[in-house]
Each structure stands twice: as structure tokens, then as C-alpha cells.
Amino acid sequence: MNQLTEPRRIRTVDELLLETRRVIMMMMTDYLSKWELAEEDEEEQDEKWDNDPSSKEKWDNETAEQDDQE
């Protein structure tokens, strides 16, 4: 059966709150994992720039060009 043909079940406030909490926790976990990955990428980039300063200059120039195009 699908949602259109089966009778709707009335959910309690507690069930709705639990579902809302579950969704929020999933979203927070996803956000935090992406944030941690971004921090790791930033650290790797800093190490790369420390070892090769010309790569930072190249990146700065590319970023400036992209900003100018926008």
C-alpha cells in the first residue's frame, strides 16, 4: 500500500519531537563532518604553501581573477 490508500495514523507530539530530533542530529552530524574535512584540507594547503610559496602566489592570482570575473 502507498500513502494515498492507507489510512493516516495520528502521531503523538512525542513521536513528532523524536523524529524532529533525529533529523536535526543527522543534519548536524553531516555539517560537522564536512566542516572537519574542510579544516583538514586547509591544513594540507597550509603545509603545501609552507613548502612551496610560489603555489600560494599562483592560488592568490587565480582567486583574484575569479573575483574579477564575478
UniProtKB/TrEMBL annotation:
List where Basic and acidic residues composition bias occurs: 48-61
Chain intervals for the UniProt region annotation (Disordered): 38-70
- Where along the chain is composition biased (Acidic residues)? 38-47
Protein name per its UniProtKB record: Uncharacterized protein
Q: Please report the organism this UniProt entry assigns to the protein.
A: Desmophyllum pertusum
